[in-house]
Amino acid sequence: MDEAMAALAAAGGTAVGQAAGTDAWNGLRQATARLFGRGDSQRASAALDRLDGTAAAVGASDGEDAEQVRLHQQALWQGRFEGLLESVDAAERDSLVAALRALLAEHAPPERASRGEVSGNTFNGPTIMQVGNSNRQNNRFGNGT
């Protein structure tokens, strides 16, 4: 599998993991099942069962565990997308790649803000910033005496 297809599979896995439990889930769930089904109702049904398992796992997690569950589900789905792309001949693979790109463009939820990233900020003067979950930050101002 080349890098572009591996990246596409990773994007698919991320989309499934991120969408579970959100407003984007139902549309992405149906589109993903259709993609995996490729016109076969049994394959589509099996994909729906796996997707429902993902939603159940994410829904049952909370707190610190939730992000780990999402990451695990993303990795599982990345592997499933890779397996799907590797299981077909070149002509069908090209069709699946186009369909997966369209699925992601239409149904993938926007990136979640809680990634610990900061960008596009301008600071004009002394600044303190904290990024992350469950952090502790102690700030002391003055001359230290």
Residue-averaged pLDDT, rounded? Answer: 86
What profile does the largest beta sheet have? none
Q: How many domains make up the coordinates?
A: 1
Alpha carbon gap, first and last residue: 61 Å
Indicate the proportion of strand residues. Answer: under 5%
Structural category is mainly alpha
Low-confidence stretches: none
Helical percentage: 55-70%
Oligomer: single chain
What would your notes on this structure say?
By secondary structure, the protein is mainly alpha-helical. The chain is elongated. The chain has one domain. The N and C termini lie far apart (61 Å). It has 5 helices and no strands. 63% of the residues lie in helices and 0% in strands.
Topology readout:
Layout: H1 3-19, H2 25-37, H3 41-60, H4 64-86, H5 90-107
Give the structure's gist in a few sentences:
The protein is mostly helical.
Structure keywords:
63% helix, mainly alpha, 145 residues, elongated, 5 helices, 0% strand
